[in-house]
Design a protein that fits this description.
Strand order of the largest sheet: 2-1-5-4-3
Structural class: alpha+beta
Distance between the termini: 69 Å
Helix content: 55-70%
Shape: elongated
Radius of gyration: 50 Å
Strand content: 5-15%
Number of domains: 4
Number of strands: 12
Largest sheet: 5 strands, antiparallel
């Protein structure tokens, strides 16, 4: 398969010192064997591949090891070429020139082109031709021509031509082949179909090139017949494929020139001339197809990155859509023309409830809201208009605007791009009913706490005064004779002081200043124990039912305090049903989350709930928020102190519990008592 363009994201594989040494030894052995079996041909061709091989290995070698790589390859080139070299000193110098040429090519490529070229971009191939073939190869050709002129007596131009053309062709053919084969993982995986296609291509190219360069009459245009095979290699196997095909063509054409065959014999009478035309043919055809292949690979890389970017954008869009869809807030947006552009399910449900129809993308909101004309529609129209004008608005909309028993925080904001251009506006509606209720409950709890501290201080001082009154009344009673009529007056003083002491006790209970002895107990057993007392308190005119759930969790509380809570709630229920009714007391295990917590519960978790319900006249909604305040009562004057529920609130708060109330006027009231569960040690 061709390079799909994703290779730029993978680092270039670097050659290790062991690999460089192994390649150098193999190269020396190959040169020696080649020179032994084809000495005449080897004289002219021994260094053709060297320039491309050295350039590829130096490119793939880490900077600190490059000098070692150059020396190893120069030594290998020298040792392998001794079989065919006519004179040792010129051969040594020319081998060094090849190493210098490769070093210069790498420096130029990295200075002006890519840091480590992969030759899968048109720019890499272009810089390979300019920096490697033209400049480094030209400089190497000059050096080699000078050596051959003085050492072998060859003409300067012939020496330069015979060096530069094969070296430049070697760089164009061999360097991309080695780099791409080392870098592309497809070349290291054995795949049946890919291998079969590669074998078919190689066999077809070998047969066609053999026919064109050796078995036909010498006609230059016939050499164009190899282009389809080169294009096949480029399209199916990428840069490495075209490089390998060009190398195979080069070998066959060069051997044909050595045998005095092929289409170029009419252009050159001598072997160097025929080889020069062969190098030029391979460099032009292979180089052009290589450039096309690199351009295709680069285009594929751009397309792949674009596809990846589009896919990432699609995934990001889906993530944003999922986040918006899962948001509890109601989110809707319009474009600059006031048409709906986006919304989440919560906003869609609210829109359908208020407008009587589901929303749709492209719906004209201005026309719809103007047509409805309701208070909330006009308010929304005003908010959208200001947001599209670049303003941010935030307001609370109550039931009188929304037409439903909820309170909403409505926000309108403009939508802008990174350059500040207006794209539309967004509306966010947040249901703040429960939040407002929690805030009110927290404020109520803080207010009751403050009142409790004040009441506790007053009750403590007042209790000291009552203690003195009772003590002096007792002394006065003891100083009077049994038949003295003033004894009755003293006893009235004592009874009044006793009632005052009971009031201070309730105040101290509310302020959590009474001495208590909490212990772990069974709430069901405590309710059963208090049931007889409660039945006497409520009287026979009421129906008293107790429903205790099995398996109730244990709680930690002072038994007398829990009994006082039950007594106060039972008395309140009795007073709410002067004409008779039903008082019901139940228990249950419950688990509360943060949103379900009544004030002043200690936190989310497991609780035992004791419900005390009546079928009385109920409590008005405007009184619900005040029932736990000290001295607040709905009873007639003289029939209540307003401390019963306040003391219940204080007791439960002292033990980490809480209390909540539900009531419907004319339908009764239910108080929910919550006590935190105690787990076994």
């Amino acid at each position: 398969m061709p390079d799909r363009g994703l290779s730029a994201s993978r680092p270039l594989r670097l050659a290790t010192p062991a690999q460089v040494a192994a390649i150098a030894v193999a190269w020396a052995a190959a040169l020696a064997a080649f020179g032994w079996f084809a000495p005449g041909f080897a004289v002219d061709s021994a260094v053709w591949v060297a320039g491309g091989l050295m350039l590829a290995l130096i490119t793939m070698t880490a900077v600190p090891l490059r000098l070692m790589a150059v020396v190893a390859l120069v030594v290998a080139q020298f040792a392998g070429g001794l079989v065919t070299a006519p004179r040792m000193l010129p051969h040594l110098i020319l081998t060094g020139v090849a190493g210098m040429q490769a070093w210069l090519a790498v420096r130029l490529l990295e200075r002006f082109g890519a840091r480590r070229p992969r030759f899968d971009r048109l720019a890499d191939v272009g810089w390979l031709f300019v920096a490697g073939c033209a400049i480094a190869g030209g400089v190497g050709g000059i050096a080699a021509a000078v050596v051959e002129r003085f050492a072998l007596g060859d003409p300067f131009l012939h020496g330069w031509r015979d060096w530069w053309l094969p070296q430049a062709t070697g760089m164009l053919v061999v360097t991309p082949l080695i780099v791409r084969m080392a870098h592309e993982p497809e070349w290291h995986a054995v795949r049946i179909r890919r291998t079969a296609e590669a074998i078919l291509l190689g066999a077809s190219l070998l047969a066609a090139s053999t026919y064109i360069f050796q078995a036909v009459s010498p006609k230059v245009p016939l050499s164009v017949g190899l282009l389809p095979f080169l294009v096949w290699a480029a399209l199916r196997f990428g840069v490495a494929g075209i490089s390998a095909a060009s190398l195979l063509t080069w070998m066959v054409a060069s051997y044909a020139a050595f045998l005095h065959a092929g289409p170029f014999i009419a252009l050159g009478a001598t072997l160097p001339e025929r080889l020069a035309w062969t190098h030029l043919y391979v460099a032009v055809t292979g180089g052009l197809v290589l450039a096309v292949s690199a351009a295709i690979a680069e285009r594929q890389a751009v397309s792949a990155r674009l596809e990846l970017s589009v896919e990432e954008l699609r995934r990001a869009y889906l993530r944003v859509q999922a986040i918006i869809a899962s948001a509890p807030d109601m989110i809707g947006a319009v474009d600059n023309a006031f048409r709906i552009s986006a919304f989440n399910p919560a906003w869609s449900a609210a829109f359908e409830h208020l407008c009587g129809r589901p929303p749709s993308i492209g719906l004209d909101m201005r026309a719809l809201l103007g047509e409805l004309g309701t208070p909330w529609a006009l308010a929304a129209l005003d908010g959208w208009t200001h947001a599209l004008a670049g303003e941010r608005l935030s307001a609370r909309r109550g039931p009188e605007v929304l037409g439903q028993p909820r309170e909403m925080l409505v926000e309108f904001s403009p939508i802008r791009d990174d350059d500040g251009r207006m794209l539309g506006a967004v509306q966010i509606l947040r249901d703040v009913t429960d939040e407002r209720r929690r805030q009110e409950a927290e404020a109520q709890a803080r207010r009751l706490e403050s009142v409790g501290q004040l009441a506790g201080g007053i009750a403590h001082d007042f209790n000291n005064i009552i203690t003195g009154i009772l003590a002096y009344a007792s002394l006065l009673e003891q100083s009077l004779d049994a038949g003295d009529e003033r004894v009755a007056d003293v006893r009235e003083i004592e009874r009044a002081a006793g009632r005052a002491a009971e009031l201070t006790g309730q105040l101290l209970a509310y302020a959590r200043r009474q001495l208590v002895e909490p212990r772990v107990l069974d709430p069901n057993a405590q309710v059963e124990e208090a049931e007889r007392l409660l039945r006497r308190l409520v009287g026979e005119a009421l129906t008293f039912r107790v429903d205790l759930a099995p398996g109730i969790w244990p709680v930690r509380i002072d038994p007398a305090s829990l009994e006082q809570v039950l007594v106060n709630l039972a008395i309140n229920a009795r007073d709410a049903m002067p004409g008779g009714g039903t008082l019901r007391m139940t228990t249950a295990n419950v688990s509360l989350v943060a949103d379900d917590l009544p004030q002043p519960a200690s936190g989310p978790g497991d609780y035992v709930r004791i419900d005390v319900s009546d079928t009385g006249h109920g409590i008005a909604s405007d009184h619900i928020g005040h029932v736990f305040e000290p001295f607040f009562t709905t009873k007639d004057v003289g029939k209540g102190t307003g401390l019963g529920l306040a003391s219940v609130f204080g007791i439960l708060q002292q033990f980490g519990g809480a209390i909540a109330v539900e009531s419907v006027v004319g339908d009764g009231t239910t108080f929910h008592v919550y006590l935190p569960r105690v787990r076994a040690a």
